[in-house]
Amino acid sequence: MYSAKGIAEILMNRPHARNSLGKVFVNELFSALEQLRFDEKVRVVVFKSEVKGVFCAGADLKERAEMDDAEVGHFVKRLRNLMDEIAALPVPTIAAIDGYALGGGLELALACDLRVAASSAKMGLIETTRGLLPGAGGTQRLPRCVGIGLAKELIFTGRQIDGQQALSMGLVNHTVPQNSEGDAAYQRALTLAKEILPQAPFAVKMGKLAINRGMEVDIASGMAIEGMCYAQNIPTRDRQEGMAAFREKRPPQFIGK
User: Which family is this protein grouped under (predicted)?
Assistant: First the structure.
């Protein structure tokens, strides 16, 4: 994990297994998330791969093949918990998809708030091609991005799509041509993170909370959740600073309080 100037980066670097989600790797991700959850200096988290050409290849099927049925069930539940922990981070999260994001790898990206992909990246919930089904949140998060019909088609067929197709479906926020270094999506993700950084941190957190919780309930309940989040923001120093900066015609200096 790397952190600088309010942007924390979770660097996935398991080259021999194409960043597949094995037990040790998952434990390391849990540890990184635990540190980030309570770091008030962090305002945006970017997930990126240090392995060229791959974001995350999904579950470690070689490791999985050595598990009995009970162990598989327990580990898949742990993967689901990992994705829930990513989704529950209080600050915005961005997945920089510069290569393959398959199965659990795409589910990891779906757990992030925003996704940026290279046009050459390959994405898919390919579990049905292995006799499986998405088990780490994919059946729930993918329909919220692309709609129920497209989600069913992608899951039923196990089809892989590229970054441009993902953009047209609404699966990613931005797509960019890949560069010679192989990190075009990461560079675009950093630009996006830097757009978020100057905004009021507490207001951004409350906005994320209102959206996430509101999506789980009917619109009337969602409006009530929005109202509660807004009420928490009213007494903040950042709101007062924002109003003062507007009156004085200057850029605001937010501190996250």
Answer: Belongs to the enoyl-CoA hydratase/isomerase family.
